[in-house]
Write a structure and sequence with these properties.
Structural class: alpha/beta
Number of helices: 10
Strand order of the largest sheet: 3-2-1-4-5-6-7
Helix content: 40-55%
Order of helices and strands: EHEHEHEHEHHEHHHEH
Strand content: 5-15%
Distance between the termini: 43 Å
């Protein structure tokens, strides 16, 4: 018996990284999965995004857990397309209980343009709105909504990292505020809304030249090995990054009845990154 038997979860950005990890871990607890991902490049992004074969691999891994999966290639920036995709997923799988609004990009380093700002806001902010709002008509009492924030949202604006970095920080801050206020409205319906705020996570969003340059601005073309030396500076605990599994453990908890009275929370999985940077009482 799993904690989420007979439940259905929708997850955006499910083709790889944190999204895939969340899909597999929720499936391992018995939830069937509506897996959404754009599976294409964005003009304003600065590193490769997932491909259709990545989403296919997520679907294979979910099915391996003995549950059903409904994968959909969809751009979370497109409101109508998201509403249609989620409605189709609910029709295919019969219900919806869990929403994980996870899709995001973080363009950093060379190649950023004003399109980087637009694509990041549209994905990391409007994309969260679209996934959550499209899910609301299908949710009943006991449902759980989980949005992926970031330690960046907790540490304030980052205007020094170009339009992509600035938009990323802004979007995650607004997502945190959105979760706070929506939780109040949905509490009346016994629907919970929470945000998880990871520090650096061992995914493609972290492992690319643009992000390496953020951590090693002293080098013209830093490598992963160069950046690994600087990554631990982000955390109080001396680790370079956390794993997707570390975030998924919290997502499973928030999706389950174990967290039935937790709502409106901003939960950090940051190895002490916040307490290291922000004095008590701030």
């Amino acid at each position: 018996m799993g904690k989420l038997d007979d439940k259905v979860a929708v997850i955006s950005g499910a083709a790889r990284g944190q999204g895939r990890s969340h899909a597999v871990n929720l499936a391992a607890e018995g939830a069937s999965i509506i897996a959404l991902d754009i599976c294409a490049e964005l003009e304003g992004n600065t590193y490769p995004l997932a491909r259709p074969e990545d989403l296919e691999e997520t679907a294979r891994l979910v099915e391996k857990e003995g549950v059903r999966v409904h994968p959909v290639v969809v751009d979370v920036r497109e409101r109508g397309a998201v509403w249609s995709a989620i409605a189709q997923g609910v029709e295919a799988l019969g219900r919806l209980d869990i929403v994980v609004a996870n899709a995001g990009i973080a363009p950093m380093g060379r190649g950023q343009t004003i399109q980087s700002w637009s694509d990041t806001i549209d994905t990391d902010l409007a994309g969260v709105f679209n996934v959550v709002q499209a899910s609301l008509p299908h949710l009943g009492p006991g449902s759980s909504i989980i949005a992926t924030g970031s330690l960046a949202a907790q540490l304030g604006s980052s205007t020094k990292q170009g339009p992509g970095g600035s938009a990323y920080s802004f979007a995650k801050q607004v997502v945190a505020h959105y979760v706070n206020d929506l939780a109040i409205q949905l509490a009346k319906k016994s629907i919970r809304v929470n945000a998880v705020h990871p520090t650096n996570v061992n995914t493609d969003m972290l492992h690319n030249e643009g992000m390496y340059k953020v951590f090693r601005p002293d080098l013209e073309a830093p490598t992963r090995e160069d950046a690994e030396v600087a990554f631990p500076a982000m955390q109080a605990m001396r680790v370079p990054y956390i794993e997707p599994q570390d975030v998924s453990n919290l997502v499973v908890f928030l999706a389950s009845e174990d967290a039935r009275y937790i709502t409106g929370s901003q939960l950090r999985v940051d190895a002490g990154g916040f307490v290291k940077s922000v004095p008590w009482g701030k």
